[in-house]
Amino acid sequence: MEKMDLLSILFILACLHVHSARSVIGTLPIDCATGTSGQIGEIQEGYEGVVEIITNIGPDDRLVLESYLFPIGVTFLELIYSNENSTHTVRTVKPLDADVLTESGGVLYYSLTCPTPSLKNIRTLKVQDVNDNPPIFQSKTYSATVSEATAVGSDVLRVIAEDADVSPENNRIIYSILPPAPDDFEVRSDGNIRLKQRLNYNNAQQYIFSVQATDIGDLSDTTTVTITVEDFDNLNPYFDHSLYKASIEENQVGQFSNVTPEAIKAQDGDTGINEPVLYSITAVLPNVYQSNFDIDQNSGVISVTTALDREEIDQITVHIQATQQDDASKTANAVVSVTIEDVNDNPPQFDQDEYTVSILENSPQDQFVLQTKVTDLDQGGFVGTFRIIPESVPFSIRPDGTILVKSSADLDRETTPSFSFQVEAQENPPSTNKATADVTIVLLDENDNSPQFTTSKYQGKVFGNQTTGMQVVKVEATDLDEGPNGEISYSVEFGNEDGFFGINENDGAITLVKIIPLVDNRILQFSLYVTAKDGGAISRSTSAMVDVKAPGDSHPQFLQKIYQGKVEEDQSEADIVKVDFLSIDPIVPVTLTVDTNADKFSINQATGVLSTKVKLDFEDESSYTVQLSITDGTHRDEASVLVEVLDINDNSPVFENPPATVSVPEDLKVGDNVTSVTATDADAGFNGEVRYTLLGGTGRFNVDQETGVISLADPLDRETQDTYHLVITAQDQGRPSRSTTTNLDISVTDINDNAPIFSNQLYKTTVSEHAEVGTTVVDVMATDKDDGPNAVVTYHIVKQEPSSTPPVFTIEAESGSIILAEKLDYGKAKSYTLEVEGQDGGIPVLTGSATVTVQVEDVNDKAPVFSKDQYNVSVYENLAGGTALESLEVTDEDEGGFSKGHFIMVSDTFVINSQGVISLQSDATLDRETEDNYIIQVVAVDQPVDGLSSTAQVIITVLDVNDNNPQFLPLPEIIEIQEGAYTPSSPGEVCKISATDADIGDNGRVIITTSSYIKFFSFREDGTLLAIEELDRETQDVYDLVIVAMDHGMPQGNNITIVRVSITDVNDNAPVFSSDTYSKSILVKDAKVGEVLLTLSATDKDAGNNALISYSFSEGSSMVALDADTGDITLTSDLSEVTEDTLLTLTAIATDHGTPPESDEAEVLIYFKIASLTESVSFESSSYKFTIKENEPEASIVGKVKALTGSPLATVSYNMKSHEDVFSVDGEGTIKALRPLDKEEEEWYILTVEAIDSRTPPNTAETTVNVQVENVNEAPVFDTEIYEAEIFSISPYKFPIVKVQASDPDVGESSELQYSLLESTTLLDVEASTGQVYVLDASRFGGNPSTFQVKATDKHGLFTTTKVQITVKEIASDNTVVISLNQPVFTVEKKTPEIEDSMKKVLGWTVKILSVRAEDGNEKRTILRESTAKTYVSFIAMDSSGVVIQATVVKEKLQSNHNDVKVELEKVFGSDLEIKVEESSGISEDSEGSSDAAVIALSVLLAISIVGLIALLTVYLVRMKKMKNTDSDRERFNIGGSFHFHSRKQEVKEVKFNNRPDSERDSENDINLKAGPSISSL
């Protein structure tokens, strides 16, 4: 670092030395006599030192350093005098800088002047510029907004950088765009950013890039340019989809219920503008439905305005168009295919409106009555139910419309000679459509009725004017039977004990035989029982009661003389009070009369209630006394009713002379009274109490609720609002209340509270200096919000700058016009500032002021000049109105240039603004198809008045935009093609479809395709529509093709139309009879010539003549004839020659009228019967029994049933009525199994099979079928495919590992399975009966898992296998831990799982008990004895990964957690538990003993064993002899610790040690041995 500093210092000193070595730039002689002029030389800027040394100076010459031409030069120099003034030196005082010498062109001028005479010795020094200044941009950021329609080559923005260096080579700037540079722009040498290619708003909305300015020395600066692209309306709108599908229910108006793939939407292709579009319907096919649709022009939602009928048409095509709101030439088209969905709007209809039929009364139940038929025009025809209305009639109706007798007992002609009811056909829910037909059933008579009285009780009266022989009453009975059974005689059975009455036995007239003694004020009553008996052989009779009343005299009278009542006013027909009275009415009628105020009151003759006849008015009269009377025509009584009228609120308040208008000053104080109103109410009490409220006035007024005084609530301002309209309501306090209103207008009068305000605070104007005195310069105007004189304004000029005498301007006091009073002189003053004051006429006077600036305008004398004589501009059509096209540049040498100039251009399409920018008129559009070229003359005028001008020509060429969609040429009215087999290689020509496009180039090149039924139709390049797939009219007779015409422009334009192609018929379908066989049975005795026996019916899928069918017989018949048109078979013979049952068999032929004709045949069977036989169906057997083996494949035959009809004309069909999911039956009665059966699942199936014949109505029969599933031997199945387990290498002999388990699908045979190893091994074996796998010897196995196969075999020798995978884990004996417990061994054995769990809780390891042995060393021996000796428990501990923990570690943890272990184990064994950790490993307690002791012990044991075996054999033989035929009991030994395995198919569970209940563990692990006591003694 120090070396670098030293080098720098040496370099600087060297430079100074070089610089100082040059002592002078140059020198010129001084001539004080004539003066001199010359160039000293050239030097680079930055120079400091001597410029010139002057030596030829005379003794009298005293030189002075002065500036010349450019004063800046001498600021760099000084003149130094030396050598007693004989030598002068010019030297620098600061470094020379060429950059500040720009005005002198980089030349430093100075003069050495001789004072006497004053002569200049002029010097020039050329200061050479050094490139020491970088370019600097005027702004660090530039931005512009550019329309995407801007023409290519247009300048959109100019960046400007300046270089302070003075020389052209150093200050010449090169502009460039730094990477990444957009392809759309370039920067020109003058800094103009020019458009290189057409912008697209949809591709990019903004460009941000950096522009660099660099000089020749690579000094540079950068600026950021942001160009925002403005969207231009040059694209047509577009629909999201060209084809929409919609649906609406028939008979509905409104919006479509469903539109797919989404709601109709179109939008402007110019996403930045997104001009709204207007929707319209251009066509509807068929066009007769044009008026049925409407579209919301804003949302595009299509609505059905007139409901449609699906039965009339089910598909309509709607052509829609979206038009840009601001340009009707920009459109988009789409097609909406509308499906009219069926609505159940057609009710069913019976074939007859009325049915009439006669049957015998008492006809049997289910007898056929008549057949009805129903049709429905909706899709699917009639689907519903029948019912009879009312259901109470004794008839029923079947689902097919057949009416039957329901109740024979109800068919009684005398009760109901005929039944008239309705049959209703009701469509299935949710439809409510129904149809009814009237049915009349006439019953024929039987004699079964008794006489019936016309009423059960008759009444008669006898009055005081009674006479003997007079008729009291007449009874009458009728008998519905005819003849003698209907003749009736009458008699009185009892009730005439006093003999007052007699009866005529023929007509039933009851007369008075003797006078009845009447009693005053009582009614005597006689009850006579009369019998009517018919004239039948066994007569039928009926009785009735006759009630005869005999009243005495009556005296009507009121119970009170005075009654009281109340009624509210304004109530008509209101009940007041009920008047009680005595009379014997109605025997003796009485009359109640209102004697007074009868015009206002009335009384009810029946109830005695007095009520009002008219509305009473409390205000007119508040009470009434009403006189009443009662009379029976002979006697009369009177009474009075006092009626009190109650007041109701029936009068509204009324205002008393309310003021209409009130004037108040605007400075009225809040709270001051304005006026008051008063209202009165004619009602009383609360009904007449008035309260006031106020509406209106915007909250500025209040009204006192009680007094009606109106006061000011908020300050007024007349200038804000000068009138107020108030609505005052007067409301009474009645319930409900009544009110009235009055209007009050309040006028606010003015005060002078507003000063005048000028329309502008600053007025600016320009006046030519040649303007004449008296010229109006400008008009100022001030307004005053006040009214009248307060608003009258006068004007004054209070100050003029610069001031003058006299003033240059005056002002008219009333108008405010400022007038030129003196001539103007641009040289004296270029502008004037006037202060103008406006005063109003109020008191006190208020004033306002404004400033007026007058600019003096210079005179014009030079014409403007265009930069070009001709401008050529190319633009795209469909530009947005107002878009700028070209900027014309004009210069003017006059002062101010062309700033005051304007342009004149005559054009209906284009306009030019004051800046010379030619734009498209805002309401104009460019359409290349209408006009593609414009030539315009533009005149530039430099002054508005008397300006000078020049002219330039502008040629505008309009370029094409793809703004026209293809248009289809007129299509044929009918488009059809014959059905047939067409292929792409052999197509069928349908028609030619053409379309044109008004655009040019690719924009106008059109291709035609179809977007529907592309499998069937395609287009040639010339627009010919081709059929390329087989067309079958019977499958589809009409194709609505969506035809799309697309141009090749960008964006692509298209048009869509729908063409309906009709498929004409070819006779390719033969007629088809409705049935293969037609049959009819007829009784010969009932046969009538001409009777229609059968009607044949055939249909043909073709159309026209191809579907017209004629019927014939293959051979003629003398008995019947066939109508060729209708298919009716009529009887032509009386059948007299038929003497026995005869079956006539004929072949009928149906032939169409096509070419060539097609035909079909059917069999006709007519059965002529001599006698009527009962027709029925029955099975050959009432029950069947079949067997089928289990696991037979699907559709295996089980058996066959058969039913007989007894007639060759009747056929039988079968129906399975039970177990339909397991069995089926076909038309031949064959029963099949639908799936394989399993005896173990179900052995017996009881089926019910129904037979149905073809008669009308059909007959049915049922039979029972018993199906037994026979067993088939199946192989056993293991619970899982593989069993896995782990054991330790120290596991003892017969240690249980895992239990395999298999089941036998055969019933009851699982318990007989035998288990064995597929191959024997020394590691393990399996118990044959239980499947328990146990250890033989694990010491020689270890490491990798060993896999063995175990098989399960059933008693028939069929077997299956499973895998057992065993992993033997090596474990050292020193890892075994032994603890001792003071518990019996059998108790510890039982609680092994609890011990493991308890120790795991304390130790945190998994504990596995290996052995449990008693103090004497017997491991897990089940010795059922009480013992408190120690029990030793050997176990290992494993961590979570299965690694065995060393015994020393386990013991340490047991010792440290001894108390915790004890607590947990006490929970298992109780509180007296003692636990000890043994030092021995527990595998062999005497492992450290001597070998001699071992030998001795083994010898003793061997001797004992021999003796024991002899004793055991002896005992065994004795017992076997005694217990012959008896199985010996067995006792089990538990040999060691047990494992517990849970296994599942395809899954192996964790192996668990000693974790099962004792019972399970004992049953699976212990060895049974009966001779326990003997072994124990051994």
Q: How would you describe this protein?
A:
- The chain has nine helices and 124 strands.
- A hairpin with a 4-residue loop joins strand 86 and strand 87.
- Residues 1-22, 1416-1428, 1482-1500 and 1520-1578 have low confidence and may be disordered.
- Helix 4 (1392-1403) packs antiparallel against helix 6.
- The longest helix is centred in the C-terminal third of the chain and has 32 residues, at 1491-1522.
- The strands form 41 sheets. The protein has a five-stranded mixed β-sheet with strand order 20-18-26-25-22, with no helix packed on it. Strands 1-7-6-3 form a four-stranded mixed β-sheet, with no helix packed on it. It has a four-stranded mixed β-sheet with strand order 9-16-15-12, with no helix packed on it.
- The chain is mainly beta and 1578 residues long.
List key phrases describing it:
9 helices, disordered N terminus, 4-stranded mixed β-sheet, extended, single chain
What is the count of DSSP helices, taking H or I runs of 4+ residues? Answer: 9
Q: Quick one: how many beta strands?
A: 124
Rg computed from alpha carbons, rounded to a whole number of angstroms: 65 Å
Stretches with pLDDT under 50, minimum 5 residues: 1-22, 1416-1428, 1482-1500, 1520-1578
Shape: extended
What is the CA-CA span between the terminal residues?
109 Å
Helix/strand class: mainly beta
- Which percent range fits the helix content? under 10%
Largest sheet: 5 strands, mixed
What strand order characterises the main sheet?
A: 20-18-26-25-22
Give the overall average pLDDT.
82
* Proportion of beta-strand residues: 35-45%
